[in-house]
Write a sequence for this structure.
């Protein structure tokens, strides 16, 4: 693609053909707009993007975008995305899933993807509830949160997702708000540019089932964290990634400097152009004998 063609890329190029079925006012609309805005800002053509999701309301997102898309299993988009990156390191791989998906059933993958560090951008639509299955409490529901599955209030503590990925070795940890899609687009763009695993927790109001954590609830508490040269200071960042309650910092909370090596960069087999299925061939051919060579190197 020529520089001139790339320069002509705008947000309308990512517009899908299917109308979203989300409830009126759902925060997922803001996430969709922000993601498209980030890709347009970075002038990334749709065919260079793969959006991988799990199962949940927000995980329907690839249907509404004109990029490559892969709807996987509840809790499992991260391993699928890691595989896609290994198979084609030229793709921008973006995972979008819900709090139940990423922090509940997929919690184990979250920890290990953060420490493994593949070049993936992970956007979590954190509405503090299970939306698709009609309002059960989730791992980020507050202690005492009343739902169909916690009629007397949740007796479990909510997890702190940004602290979890930070402690697991993520090099980029951020939080955005679906009600401020332009700011969120800037955060997502930085996550895409970060070479490594980038975790972006998004405060995403569920207007139908979560009547506690509403747009107003988030607006009253969210504040723009002002970045300083301390951004890569792990001690200062530890406070920011844990902060929750009356004051919730928004923005990039931690960015490693210098960054660590990515998973792909450390995989010897991928450095050899003659065995890589995509980088080593002009055409993608599953019958190419080099696939067998690659598989032997990866799995022996
Ligand atoms: C293995 C498996 N377990 C459970 C389900 C049922 N299920 C589908 S979506 C979901 C929770 C969705 O919540 P979340 O990930 O927060 O996404 P949201 O709908 O809130 O966007 C559950 C429990 C499933 N599809 N697969
Ligand atoms: S149930 Fe909640 S998360 Fe799902 S589409 Fe409706 S408002 Fe959005
Ligand atoms: Mg949810």
């Amino acid at each position: 693609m020529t520089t001139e063609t790339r320069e002509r890329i705008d947000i309308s190029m990512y517009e899908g053909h299917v109308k979203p079925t989300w409830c009126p006012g759902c925060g997922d609309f803001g996430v969709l707009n922000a993601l498209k805005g980030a890709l347009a800002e970075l002038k990334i053509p749709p065919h260079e993007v793969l959006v991988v999701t799990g199962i949940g309301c927000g995980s329907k997102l690839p249907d509404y975008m004109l990029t490559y898309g892969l709807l996987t299993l509840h809790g499992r988009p991260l391993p699928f995305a890691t595989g896609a990156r290994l198979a084609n390191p030229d793709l921008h791989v973006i995972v979008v899933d819900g709090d139940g998906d990423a922090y509940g059933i997929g919690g184990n993958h979250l920890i290990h993807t953060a420490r493994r560090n593949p070049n993936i951008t992970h956007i979590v639509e954190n509405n503090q509830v299970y939306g698709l299955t009609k309002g059960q409490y989730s791992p980020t529901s507050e202690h005492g949160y009343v739902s169909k599955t916690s009629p007397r209030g949740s007796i479990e503590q909510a997890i702190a997702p940004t602290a979890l990925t930070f402690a697991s070795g993520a090099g980029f940890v951020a939080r955005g708000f679906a009600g401020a899609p332009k700011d969120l687009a800037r955060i997502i763009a930085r996550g895409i540019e970060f070479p490594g695993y980038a975790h972006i927790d998004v405060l995403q109001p569920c207007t139908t089932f979560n009547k506690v954590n509403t747009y107003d609830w988030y607006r009253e508490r969210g504040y723009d964290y002002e970045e300083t040269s301390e951004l890569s200071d792990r001690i200062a960042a530890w406070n920011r990634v844990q902060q929750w309650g009356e004051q919730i910092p928004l923005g990039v909370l931690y960015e490693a400097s210098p960054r660590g090596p990515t998973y792909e960069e450390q995989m010897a087999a991928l450095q050899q152009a003659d065995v890589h299925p995509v980088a080593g061939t002009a055409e993608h051919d599953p019958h190419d004998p080099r696939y067998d060579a690659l598989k032997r190197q990866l799995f022996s």
